[in-house]
Design brief:
transmembrane; 256 residues; Noncollagenous (NC1) domain of collagen IV; single chain; 2 domains; 25% strand; ten-stranded mixed sheet; alpha+beta; 1 helix
Length: 256
C-alpha cells in the first residue's frame, strides 16, 4: 500500500469517527433537552399541586376545638352527678363563726394540699377553719335531709366536690326550688344553708346536697364555719309565695 492510499484510509476513518462522535453528541443533546423538559413539567405540576392543596386548606373551615364544660361545687358530697366529671373532692373551709373579719366565702379545700414557704406559728394573719353541719333540732323530729349517705350529720365535718360538666354549659344555683326551669338540666338539689344570723361571721348561701355525706374525719364538734338551714321570714319577703319559718330548698341547674 502506497502512502497516498494510506492517507485516504486514515481520512475516511477520521471522517467516520467524526460522524459517529457528532451523532453521539446529537443524541446526548436531545436526551438532555428531553430530560430538562420533563423536569420543568414535573416542577410545574408540583407547584400546581401545592397551590391546589393550600387553596383547599384555606377554603376548609376551621375545625372547632372541643370546648370545656363549666365548674361548680357540690356542697356536702364527695362525688359528682352523672352529667359531670369530678375535678377533686375535699372539705368545706371558711371563717370562724365568731370572727368579725376574714373571708366571707366558703372554699372547697382539696384533701392533698401542697405547701410553699411557711411558718408553724400563728402570726397576725387571716385564718381558715373546717365546717360542720348544725342541724341538732332536725335530727329526729324534723328530718329534712335524706340520710341515705350518713346516719348522723350534726357537728360532723362537711365534704365537697368540684365538678366539671361534660359539655359546655351555663351553671346557676337556683334558690327556693327543687326543680329547674324549662330548658335547664338539674345537676343536684338540696337545701340552702349558711351561717347563723346571730353569729359574727358571715359567708355565702350555698346549696347543700339533699343526701349529704359526713367527712370521714368524723364527729369532732370543733365548730369553725357552721352551716344552718335557711328559713323564710315574711315582711319584706313576700308571703305568699314564701311561708314564714319554712326552710328554703335549692337546685343547681345547667343549660347545655
Amino acid at each position: 500500500m502506497d502512502f497516498a492510499q494510506l492517507s485516504r484510509n486514515i481520512s475516511q476513518r477520521c471522517y467516520i469517527s467524526s460522524l459517529i462522535a457528532f451523532g453521539l453528541l446529537l443524541i446526548l443533546t436531545i436526551t438532555i433537552l428531553h430530560q430538562d423538559a420533563r423536569i420543568r413539567k414535573m416542577e410545574q405540576n408540583s407547584e400546581q399541586n401545592r397551590f391546589l392543596s393550600k387553596k383547599s386548606l384555606d377554603d376548609k373551615p376551621d375545625t372547632p376545638k372541643p370546648a370545656l364544660g363549666s365548674l361548680y361545687t357540690r356542697w356536702g358530697r364527695t362525688t359528682c352527678p352523672p352529667y359531670s366529671n369530678i375535678v377533686y373532692d375535699g372539705v368545706v373551709g371558711g371563717q370562724h363563726y365568731d370572727s368579725t373579719g376574714g373571708g366571707s366565702n366558703l372554699l372547697c379545700l382539696p384533701n392533698d394540699p401542697i405547701w410553699a414557704n411557711f411558718t408553724t406559728d400563728l402570726e397576725v394573719a387571716a385564718t381558715i377553719y373546717g365546717s360542720e353541719y348544725q342541724i341538732a333540732t332536725y335530727n329526729v323530729k324534723n328530718r329534712l335531709f335524706s340520710f341515705a349517705n350518713a346516719k348522723t350529720l350534726h357537728d360532723h365535718n362537711v365534704p365537697c366536690a368540684v365538678c366539671l360538666t361534660r359539655q359546655p354549659a351555663v351553671v346557676m344555683m337556683l334558690p327556693a326550688r327543687t326543680q329547674c326551669y324549662a330548658g335547664w338540666t338539674a345537676e343536684y338539689s338540696g337545701y340552702l344553708m349558711t351561717e347563723h344570723n346571730g353569729h359574727k361571721g358571715r359567708h355565702e348561701y350555698v346549696c347543700v346536697d339533699n343526701a349529704p355525706e359526713a367527712d370521714p374525719a368524723g364527729y369532732r364538734n370543733d365548730d369553725g364555719t357552721l352551716l344552718y338551714f335557711v328559713q323564710a321570714v315574711c315582711g319584706s319577703l313576700p308571703c305568699p309565695p314564701y311561708v314564714n319559718g319554712q326552710e328554703l330548698t335549692c337546685v343547681v341547674c345547667s343549660k347545655y
